[in-house]
């Protein structure tokens, strides 16, 4: 098993994808956090044509510091899926199976190998929101909101949520081994389908509780705050429940993938 894990680590480290995607994620989340902080803080000061602030002032800092979980989780999710699907795209899965006949061990080795990268992506995401969000909040005149424990807790739990998203990505990569299909599908769901679905469910009182169990909402629940919840668009589960629901999506996807695609003959 150790040899399989070392092999998977080498596969990741010998390509540029892990650090290129990491840098893109950091830049994107920093842009999100800074723009969100300035836009909401300035709107609260009446600088946006008299529009009311949609996020309460006491939730403003938390919303900014969880911007990665709200808007940037697609990066670790996609990376986790690529760790699996790149084997099928480049046809190296045959070599992997020859070296390690047990496909269960291959999947488990990939999962273990992604853990340090999941931690790295999670910490980097929280660091980016803090590095850009705190000065932006201070510049807007509302303060960075770092004098209490709530903001630091949100930053720490945001890192956990982002790390969990990468593990979930491995599960979806196991389910859908076609790299193009899984990437397009994940992008469509995270950037278009789920946001629209959450807003639609939030407008219907009877269905509003269902939105809490969607994958994105579960990830935000781990951090304890998000733009959607702070603005009243949706409620969140407790942090522990959000973690279980999110990892549950990955476990179900991996189980279905194991029973279907991972058991097929290689041609």
Uncertain stretches of 5 or more adjacent residues: 47-51
Q: Could you state the oligomeric state of the chains shown? A: single chain
Q: Averaging pLDDT over every residue, what do you get?
A: 86
CA distance, first residue to last residue: 25 Å
Give the overall shape, derived from the CA principal axes: globular
Count of individual beta strands = 0
- The percent range for helix content is over 70%
Portion in beta strands: under 5%
Q: Which H/E pattern describes the elements?
A: HHHHHHHHHHHH
Brief overview:
With 267 residues, the chain is mostly helical. It is 75% helix and 0% strand. It has one domain (2-262).
Please, could you describe this protein's structure?
The chain is mostly helical and 267 residues long. The chain has one domain (2-262). 75% of the residues lie in helices and 0% in strands. It contains twelve helices and no strands. Helix 2 (17-44) runs antiparallel to helix 3 (57-65). The two termini are 25 Å apart. Residues 47-51 have low confidence and may be disordered.
